[in-house]
Amino acid sequence: MKELEIAKTEVVSLLNTLIKEYKVFAPVGQNGFITFQEIHSGSEAFLDYINSKKPPKEIFFPQSERLFSYDLSKGEGWSVEEPASEKKQRIIFGIRPCDARSLVLLDNVFDGQLYKDPYYSGKRKNTTIIAIGCNQPSSTCFCTSLGGGPFSQDGSDLILVDIGQKYIVQVVTEKGKKLAKKHNEFKEAEDNSLSLMRDTIETAEALIKSKIEVQKVTEKLDSMFDDPFWDLVSEKCLGCAVCTYLCPTCYCFDITDEVTGQRGERVRTWDSCAFPNFTLQASGVNPRPSSKERLRQRIMHKFNYFVANHGMAACVGCGRCIKECPVNLDIQVVLNSILNR
Amino acid sequence: MKNPYLPLPMRVEKIVIETEDKNIKTFSVKFLNDEDAANFNYLPGQFAQLSVLGEGEAPFGIASSPTEPGELQFTVNKAGVLTTALHNLEEGEIIGVRGPLGNCFPIEALESKDTIIIGGGFAFTTLRSLTNYILYQENRSRFGNVVVIYGARSPGLLLYRDELEKWEVRTDLDLHLTVDRAEEDWQRKVGVVPNIVKEIAPSPENAYAVVCGPPIMIKFTLPVLRDLGFPPERIVLSLEMKMKCGIGMCGRCNIGNQYVCKDGPIFTLAQLNELPSEY
Lengths: 341, 279
Ligand SMILES: Cc1cc2nc3c(=O)[nH]c(=O)nc-3n(C[C@H](O)[C@H](O)[C@H](O)COP(=O)(O)OP(=O)(O)OC[C@H]3O[C@@H](n4cnc5c(N)ncnc54)[C@H](O)[C@@H]3O)c2cc1C
Ligand code: SF4
Ligand code: FES
Known about the structure:
- The complex is a heterodimer of chains A (341) and B (279).
- Chain A folds into two domains: 4-206, no CATH class; 214-339, no CATH class.
- Chain A is 33% helix and 19% strand.
- Chain A has helices at 11-21, 97-110, 118-125, 174-182, 191-207, 214-221, 229-234, 242-245, 291-310, 320-324, 331-339; strands at residues 4-7, 23-28, 35-38, 64-71, 80-81, 90-95, 127-132, 158-162, 166-171, 187-188, 253-260, 263-270.
- In chain A, helix 6 crosses helix 9 (291-310) and helix 6 packs across helix 11 (331-339).
- With 279 residues, chain B is of the alpha/beta class.
- Chain B has two domains: 8-101, Translation factors (Elongation Factor Tu (Ef-tu), domain 3), CATH 2.40.30; 107-238, 3-Layer(aba) Sandwich (Rossmann fold).
- Chain B is built from nine helices and 15 strands.
- The mean pLDDT of chain B is 95.
- The chains are: A alpha+beta (341), B alpha/beta (279).
- At the A-B interface, strand 4, strand 11, strand 12 and helix 9 of A face strand 4 and strand 13 of B.
- FE2/S2 (inorganic) cluster (FES) is lined by residues 243-246, 248-253, 259, 261 of chain B.
């Protein structure tokens, strides 16, 4: 479908219309601390931002989520209750292309061939994704090395290109098309806007200077499991797990039971390969006893194992782990060092 | 869509204390709903997650064989929170089960071959399942000779002793029981499993070795099998890792790109040789 456009002045009213029908999530917050939240008025959306502190993966895979609840007072009986599935359709407005792309990666895990995760898949199905491309990629962005880009369409239903007074709207999927057709704020794009759009995209892509040959990294890693490299590179890692919590593609979780009085819940919570207990067995055996094995797992999983299993690296190059690591353990540096070995 | 996280209710029909230290119990459990029972189709080697509501869940190999319909059996070593909760159960109580999970022993490959079953300690659970599956009247003729070598530290720590006695008198099974330390009335072998394997020296000709046991036993048994001439493709192992989801999603049980819960827990040594040694 041909591109559409929407005037920036119309965005708040569009969001207000959408809010009536959908649960709408958008970037909210100031002073650099942006997160995705449900908004109740279009003016709450803060669209002039680089990227959110926390990735919007939690809209599909919450940090803590009830799998089911139960009643312990029933004694002999068995009363396990699944949470009601969300009936209301949802929209994410203003997600960045890297984070939209991360959902395509996560689909491989949660919507697998053998097993489907009903919690994730349910939310994924009832959500329409409207991305806004990045005119100003950050110095830590390296999405173009991972098959994405500041205007990559993967994972989005609609993607917006900021050309100043208005957004050009690229229609990616049928779901996006349906939504756009229903709302007359979307108009057919003018020809001169389209050439502006192309310039904008080109300029933004050129701003991303980092270029890592990830395919070569993957090949190198094939024979690097026992390399002393991992001792060196992991030396300063604190095992804080910030890198994995803030990673839009990390999905490891724990499952625990939580009981208050007679009510109990089985809950899943984000977990991390950076933690020592992650693989500690009841027998006391731990196949990943030090940060060496744990950091190796993080890098190997993202750039080798995941590629073997799903044909793509489990990284979208958003740069959050680079920005937030307290000891400045820069994944781009790690990848380049691997290439230089 | 079936929710793979949802445990199904089962009643504990029978609890047997297996070992003299009382640290290991076998639970016979039965589905409350016939429909759940009909949908639970498993083969030897697979495992399931057992839930005690309020306490959590943990993975256990299925110790019963599908040729023993009606009930499932799990043999549980008391090790921590959930296993203690299981040990505190009484007959008649309800637990949750989800599964069957993981792959099974390579049953088809074992057909028309000799099978050398080597087990140590309380890891004998799924080997019990496999042995009974092969011994089952309608299955037996499809398989070749069966040798079972099973050891524990002391006689009182062997599992399934009543059943072992029945196996001992069977002519279609060659059973070798051994203990690390002999006691007065012990008439069978004395010595650690790897040494007994060496002594019995089963022929690798047209044979598979299936090995489950503590890491130390496996470590010393593998070279013995290699020296006997068993190729890595015909040495079968069952692995244990820390598990939560059991369905390849929670991300913690991988060895290289293989998830022990979903792609395993059964691997041939040849497969493991291709993977990083992180287990
Ligand atoms: C495929 C598979 C099949 C299995 N089959 C069987 C079987 O047939 N029979 C059997 O008995 N077992 C089996 N196991 C092992 C069994 O799953 C574990 O023993 C069980 O998960 C222990 O659970 P728990 O809650 O009792 O122990 P936990 O409470 O989780 O842990 C027990 C031990 O870990 C330590 N620990 C726990 N948390 C921490 C912490 N945060 N920091 C430090 N230490 C900690 C505790 O000190 C304790 O000693 C199998 C495992 C797998 C993967
Ligand atoms: S954020 Fe940095 S210090 Fe923390 S676990 Fe990740 S690499 Fe290690
Ligand atoms: S136990 Fe969760 S991935 Fe294997």
